[in-house]
Specification:
alpha+beta; 522 residues; single chain; five-stranded antiparallel sheet; 18 strands; 33% helix; 2 domains; Beta-lactamase
Length: 522
């Protein structure tokens, strides 16, 4: 008899363990990525294209662009592109979406992507000291005795302590690796100790180019061509302008004294690392494929990872690693004031505004050229534009167009489907509130809940809220914030009630926090 009871107890324990395993699998393996809910989304976006073309052409004319090219990417596809003006004023060669413009510092994220790919291949670590790959870095004399050695991560996020060097850096593209070594041998002048402040430095990305070469065993140009460009189908994109077909190459100009003056194109030296900060030459048609790669990293999912860089590593690139700005009075083109916070990822700028919109991308500027791109992962939306006049300003006009698309097309970000466990807890909760009868025996609340929320106070508080709301006439759908947290609305005859709850990390997840409050009817 005793043996039989032991067997029964063991069987019961096994069933309990098995049931918890099933719950764990059901909670974690039933994840559904966020999705767009408007089936007419693309058609609504298409209706904005005529206005977009007008804005770009007017902007180019007002700002003396010899030529301009642009593209809009939606859900990984170049859905609208165009060009106006000329890439070569002397020969009157029209700008097209296949024209190849030098895109300057837009190159930086491609260099950062090469670093992340090498990290994923086990050939370097982001917290490695840079001197492991660039020996001259070990000899640098920092501002303070307690300074740490510059790491690869410091270089990726403009935190190495180098001074902002845009005017000077613009002229270094053709420098050789020997010239870079000579610069380091003479000691670099620092503006800050490493790791304590953001300061945009082209020198840092030249060093990353050297690191790509050292870690891969190939010139960084070759590594990026073979491991990023070719897999993406970027077959005409180049580093060296002499390799570009003359009828495809955009010449650069400066507007001075009421006329255009052609700028001298700088070479990308085959044995130089400076090109890693700004030598890339690409078209709208091909750069859109790179933008599509960045958009493909969202939402996180279990879909096949096709590369050339893992989706998780792309999201890591886009993360705001080094804070660099807070603007409470940021004004969008058009006059809308909306506070923004800014940061720098790995070769990428990051901005989030007061409405929660996140923008990721980078600008570029060199004598003769200006460029800018942004993607909005939660909207599946991207924009890119090039101009062939010195430091062509395109950041604000791109922001204006993104704002226009979202407003005119009525776009909303992806919506996260309600997880099975959130839906289950919602249904169970609706059987308990507002009376709280048998709540403590229901098994749906975490161990902290009732010690934090005495039952008598809960009954009193919820009775008062429901009395103000009147009869509940409808229960709206759950709005999920993530797999274990969300809210829904109870529509009352007199007022609505918003119910918010969040679940615990245990298995099965239980309600650890619950709030209900009266909200205006709408």
């Amino acid at each position: 008899m005793l043996h039989h009871r032991v067997q029964c107890l063991l069987s019961l324990a096994f069933l309990l363990i098995s049931s918890f395993t099933i719950v764990a699998q059901s909670v974690n393996s039933t994840y559904k990525p966020a999705e767009f809910t408007d089936p007419d989304r693309l058609e609504k976006i298409r209706k904005t294209f005529p206005a977009i073309e007008t804005i770009y052409k007017d902007h180019a004319a007002r700002n003396h662009f010899p030529g301009i090219a642009w593209g809009i990417v939606v859900d990984g596809n170049l859905v609208f592109s165009g060009a106006d003006g000329y890439t070569n004023l002397e020969k009157k060669i029209p700008a097209t979406t296949s024209s190849l413009f030098r895109i300057a510092s837009m190159s930086k994220s491609v260099t950062a992507m090469a670093i992340l790919k090498l990290r994923d291949e086990g050939k370097l670590r982001l917290d490695d000291p840079a001197y492991l790959y660039v020996p001259e870095m070990k000899k640098q004399k920092y501002l303070t005795a307690d300074s740490t050695q510059i790491t690869i991560r410091d270089l990726l996020t403009h935190g190495a302590g180098f001074p902002e060097d845009n005017p000077w850096g613009d002229r270094q593209l053709a420098d050789t690796n020997k010239e870079l070594s000579d610069l380091l041998e003479k000691q670099v002048s620092f503006s800050n100790p490493p790791g304590v402040a953001y300061e945009y430095a082209n020198l840092g990305f030249a060093l990353l180019g050297r690191i790509v070469t050292k870690a891969s065993g190939k010139p960084y140009q070759q590594y990026i061509r073979e491991n990023i460009w070719r897999p993406l189908g970027m077959t005409t994109t180049e580093w060296e302008y002499a390799n570009v077909a003359p009828d495809k190459l955009a010449h650069g100009y400066r507007w001075l004294n009421g006329k255009w003056n052609e700028e001298i194109l700088l070479h990308d030296t085959a044995d130089g690392s400076w090109g890693a900060m700004g030598s890339m030459i690409s078209s709208i048609d091909e750069f859109s494929k790179y933008m599509a790669l960045h958009l493909s990293a969202w939402p996180p999912s279990s879909a096949a990872d096709k590369g050339p860089l893992k989706r998780a590593s792309i999201r890591e690139m886009q993360h705001p690693w080094r804070f660099n700005s807070l603007n409470p009075n940021f004004t969008y083109p058009g006059g809308r004031v909306c506070a923004t916070a800014g940061a720098y990822g790995y070769g990428l700028g990051w901005m989030r505004d007061c409405e929660g919109r996140v923008y990721i991308g980078h600008g570029g500027g060199l004598p003769g050229f200006g460029s800018h791109w942004r993607v909005m992962p939660e909207y599946g939306l991207g924009i890119v534009a090039y101009g062939n006049v010195t430091y062509a300003s395109l950041g604000n006009v791109n922001l204006q167009i993104l704002d226009l698309i979202i407003k005119e097309a009525g776009l909303s970000p992806r919506q996260l489907p309600t997880s099975a466990i959130l839906a289950q807890r919602k249904a169970e909760l609706l059987k308990i509130i507002p009376t709280w009868e048998n709540a403590e025996k229901s098994g749906i609340f975490a161990e902290n809940f009732f010690p934090d929320n005495p039952i008598d106070i809960l009954k009193e508080r919820y009775a008062a809220i429901w009395a103000k709301a009147g009869k509940i006439v409808a229960v709206r759908d759950m709005i999920a914030e993530n797999q274990l947290r969300g809210r829904f609305i109870l529509e009352g005859e007199k007022a609505n009630i918003e119910v918010f709850f969040t679940l615990s990390p245990e298995n099965p997840p239980l309600i650890q926090q619950l709030n209900a409050l009266e909200v205006p009817k709408r």
